[in-house]
Amino acid sequence: MRVMIVSANGYGRGHEALADALVEELGVTVPAASVVVVDGMQETFGRLNRHWREAYARQVAHDPAAYGRGYALSALPAPARRLGQTFWLLATRALADQAGQHRPDVVASTHPFMTNAVGRMRRHGQLAAPVLVPLHNLDPHPSWMSPGVDLHVANVPEDLPRIERNFRRAYQRVELRVATATPPVDLRLHSRFSTVQRAAARRRFGLPDEAAVLLVSGGSLDYRLPDEDFHAVLDCRADLHVAVTTGKSDEFAAALRSAFP
């Protein structure tokens, strides 16, 4: 089996991490498979891609409200469809070249822009291999799904109503094919940890021995959860110990200590 995973590097770490996890699991479940990971954004935009990455990181860091408004606007039916069509037109040639080079039996996409490209390529007969898209978000943006995708895969059954709702916002008359499967993870995390190991890990990170722990991660770009959301979490579960990762952001860490002494 030949598998081509289309991802995008540098736009946070999540898309790359999901591609890495797929490679890890395929190495165990289908060891004879030939797996290649393609940076779809790089293949599509070349040297311009660096400017897109830098602009994305700047907006997230310095004007998250504007990023949020754009994200909300593009979730509306017409903009979501237009966004998908645009990336299909821009990326088709580059991705068709990659498919011709690697001749995959199946294509998986871990980046929403690439999902729209390969899904529509599949729908328009420009891609012979079936397309699979893991949805690693609990409430996926409509543009993260695409007509033409052979199978969208959710992590838990409880996500299916939201996925259906979001897809129907943009594509009322297109069949949505969706299934559930446990998410791929780094295989080093598959082993069972002993009680002694768990206790040692909690001590290492200064966590309480017994309390339930909620880990809040802003990802590689240190997205900040709004203070009011932190308050809501703390108010609903007084017994919960909240641990927050701030990455390399001293500013985020200082603001967190100030708001929650």
Layout: helices, strands, pairs:
Layout: E1 2-7, H1 14-29, E2 34-39, H2 40-45, H3 48-62, H4 64-73, H5 77-102, E3 106-109, H6 112-123, E4 131-135, E5 151-154, H7 160-170, E6 178-180, H8 195-204, E7 213-217, H9 227-236, E8 241-245, H10 250-259
Parallel strand pairs: 1-2, 1-3, 3-4, 4-5, 5-6, 7-8
Explain how this protein is built:
Helices cover 48% and strands 15% of the residues. The protein is an alpha/beta fold. The longest helix has 26 residues, at 77-102. It starts with a strand and ends with a helix. The mean pLDDT is 89.
Summary of the model, kept short:
The chain has 261 residues and is of the alpha/beta class. It has helices at 14-29, 40-45, 48-62, 64-73, 77-102, 112-123, 160-170, 195-204, 227-236, 250-259, and strands at residues 2-7, 34-39, 106-109, 131-135, 151-154, 178-180, 213-217, 241-245.
Notable features of this structure?
single chain; alpha/beta; about 260 residues; two-stranded parallel ribbon
Profile the largest sheet: 6 strands, parallel
Cα gyration radius (Å)? 20 Å
Count of helical regions: 10
Helix/strand/pairing category = alpha/beta
- Distance between the ends: 54 Å
**Uncertain residue ranges:** none
Q: What is the N-to-C order of secondary-structure elements (H for helix, E for strand)?
A: EHEHHHHEHEEHEHEHEH
What is the number of E strands?
Answer: 8
User: How much helical structure, as a percent, in the residues?
Assistant: 40-55%
